[in-house]
Amino acid sequence: MNTMLFSPYTIRGLTLKNRIVMSPMCMYSCDTKDGAVRTWHKIHYPTRAVGQVGLIIVEATGVTPQGRISERDLGIWSDDHIAGLRELVGLVKEHGAAIGIQLAHAGRKSEVPGEIIAPSAIPFNESSRTPKEMTKADIEETVQAFQNGARRAKEAGFDVIEIHAAHGYLINEFLSPLSNRRQDEYGGSPENRYRFLGEVIDAVREVWDGPLFVRISASDYHPDGLTAKDYVPYAKRMKEQGVDLVDVSSGAVVPAAIDAYPGYQVPFAELIRREADIPTGAVGLITSGWQAEEILHNGRADLVFLARELLRNPYWPYAAARELGVKIEAPVQYERGWRF
Ligand SMILES: Cc1cc2nc3c(=O)[nH]c(=O)nc-3n(C[C@H](O)[C@H](O)[C@H](O)COP(=O)(O)O)c2cc1C
């Protein structure tokens, strides 16, 4: 049978062998606390490449030390990080997958000791620190840090860059009126709240001509927050700026109860794809081959991102192929186990 899940997908000149993406997942495994790639990363990511994932997106990687979620995050704030990342890229590519990296700044959700920064001096919840409201100089520096990160990602050989604008981290904090109360040109109207992301995209695009994804939180799950409809004009703007795909997640800008069920974020990806006419990625409780195929075949998204299922089973693509009755290439070493 001809499935979409196992058909190649080309985006800005990069051809993925299938439409299965490993969603970025923090491993909190830099025990040296310097952002450097460790043995864990060199085993964890290539294992999913052996498992036949088409595109692997490396976890949220800090563009500044203070922009990490924790001290154990990966980093890309120094040229010293390039060699380790290049080795990781080589290992993943050697085993047949494409590889991307998620460039991130945690903003007010950073748990790294010291000062934390955000668009406004509002803490995430009662138990979190109050961030410093960013000055114009802080904004400029942070945009520059994203650009430097992109340049280093290119030097390390990544195929894809994803900008993390979701889950209540710094860029999302600018976008949402719940966390952005600024009075200047970076706050207030929807256009002003987009300005920071717009500047980050332009800065990254100056040094990066490969596929560019942006991950968003399409719903704040709050009556005064953003909804997927609010993201349609934003996604149109992203497309004009040269973004190739919007990776549609949701939530976490403020504490909120989320009713999560299989495919709960897919309608957001579908709406943005249709209304903004831009490729989207669907993510969230996607666990079976037929579920993934339905999303693609009904034109609800262009790529499916899997997170926890790929922690449980790094060989999920093989299991999904079997479910859909598709024969996929197996690593020669595993052929006797993968034959059916
Ligand atoms: C251990 C873990 C770490 C995660 N880290 C990140 C991250 O670094 N960046 C990100 O955008 N999402 C992160 N997420 C969210 C996942 O990428 C994904 O969007 C979410 O888990 C829903 O997909 P799933 O139901 O397939 O797990 C993480 C999730 C898990 C379980």
UniProtKB/TrEMBL annotation:
Record bears the keyword Glycoprotein: no
Catalysed reactions, semicolon-separated: A + NADPH + H(+) = AH2 + NADP(+)
Cofactor(s) needed: FMN
Enzyme Commission (EC) number: 1.6.99.1
Keywords, comma-separated and alphabetical: Detoxification, Flavoprotein, FMN, NADP, Oxidoreductase
Residue ranges of domain NADH:flavin oxidoreductase/NADH oxidase N-terminal in the record: 5-322
Molecular functions (GO terms): NADPH dehydrogenase activity
Annotated Gene3D superfamilies: Aldolase class I
Binding-site residues, FMN: 23-26, 60, 102, 215, 307-308
Pfam families recorded: Oxidored_FMN
InterPro entries: Aldolase_TIM, NADPH_DH_bac, OxRdtase_FMN_N, YqjM-like
Residues holding substrate: 28, 164-167
Reported function: Catalyzes the reduction of the double bond of an array of alpha,beta-unsaturated aldehydes and ketones. It also reduces the nitro group of nitroester and nitroaromatic compounds. It could have a role in detoxification processes.
Assembly behavior: Homotetramer.
HAMAP family the UniProt entry points to: NamA (MF_01614)
Family (UniProt): Belongs to the NADH:flavin oxidoreductase/NADH oxidase family. NamA subfamily.
PANTHER family: NADPH DEHYDROGENASE C23G7.10C-RELATED
UniProt protein name: NADPH dehydrogenase
